[in-house]
Amino acid sequence: MNIEEKYNEKDVLTARFAKALSHPARVQILKFLASQDNCFCGNIVDYIPLSQSTVSQHIKELKAAGLIHGRYEPPKIYYCIDENNWNLAKSLLNELLNVDIKSVCNTETIK
């Protein structure tokens, strides 16, 4: 039984987006791309203090989650935030973070 059969689609997507956001470098990449007026063509390494190969791995994760997409126009690659998935991620994460909690545990009372 695969993960899609065990959990509903919204929860699977929420987890996929949350996983993509689980590293500060990916958050920085998304913030950087969101600040651009159009698709960014250039070396993201100039803006993120990591090696090219590490940045490439983070971009790969963001693409796999559907939060960004790239377009290759030799000799350059253009990166953009995927607006539809970005809005879906915002909605799903907002829904999760706005769930009312019934109680809050005080870890000091647990011995």
Q: Secondary-structure blueprint of this entry?
A:
Elements: H1 3-6, H2 9-20, H3 24-34, E1 40-41, H4 52-64, E2 68-73, E3 76-81, H5 83-97
Helix pairs in contact: 2-5
Distinctive features:
single chain, about 110 residues, alpha+beta, 3-stranded antiparallel β-sheet, 5 helices, about 50% helix, about 15% strand, globular
Number of helices: 5
Written as H for each helix and E for each strand, in order along the chain, the element string is: HHHEHEEH
Largest sheet: 3 strands, antiparallel
> What class do helices, strands and sheet pairing give?
alpha+beta
If you compute it from the alpha carbons, what radius of gyration comes out, rounded to the nearest whole angstrom?
A: 17 Å
Please characterize this protein's 3D structure.
- Strand 2 and strand 3 form a beta hairpin.
- By secondary structure, the chain is of the alpha+beta class.
- Helices cover 50% and strands 13% of the residues.
- The model has no long low-confidence stretch (mean pLDDT 90).
- It has helices spanning 3-6, 9-20, 24-34, 52-64, 83-97; strands at 40-41, 68-73, 76-81.
- The protein has 5 helices and 3 strands; from the N terminus they run αααβαββα.
- It starts with a helix and ends in a 14-residue tail after the last helix.
